[in-house]
Amino acid sequence: MASNAAPLGTLPSGIGIFTCLPDIFYLPELVFGGLVWILVASSLVVPANPQGWVMFVSVFCFVVTFLWMVLFACGAHHSKPGWAAADFVYHGIAAFFYLSASVALARVTIEMKDGSIFLNYQLDISAVVFSYVATLLYFVHTILSAIRWKSF
């Protein structure tokens, strides 16, 4: 029976990052993070709106996750335990950032419900949903990265 995890004490490289846990989450993280970025960028921003933080988080996590995925795919880590710890730390920080951005975005969306244009409200609701999905993906990736790190 095939396993979805890399052997203990190893980090996948090349195409292997798309077939094992937790690295299989890279692409969904990029997709949902990109959707948050696009939806927030296309929504109405009022002066007292904390969507700048949401944009920072979505762009930062998109870029760093893409670079992290490329580093793993190129094999720059060479199965060293320091990379597993760094993977755990980065995804933990990203999950925390996304959670804070999701809460701020949800608060703004609730406050804008009565006075906003319906299309902008729908965009904001979609951004909130995708932001919480991205938070969940980063959180699960953090837990699985911690398990992999402890197996070294």
From TrEMBL:
Q: Which GO terms describe its cellular component?
A: membrane
The compartments listed are:
Membrane
Q: What is this protein called?
A: Mal, T cell differentiation protein a, tandem duplicate 2
Q: Which InterPro entries match?
A: MAL, Marvel, MARVEL-CKLF_proteins
| Sequence ranges assigned to domain MARVEL in this UniProt record | 17-150
A single GO molecular function term of this UniProt record: structural constituent of myelin sheath
List, alphabetically, the PROSITE patterns matched: MARVEL
Biological process terms in GO annotation: myelination
Keywords in alphabetical order, please: Membrane, Transmembrane, Transmembrane helix
Q: Which gene encodes it?
A: mal
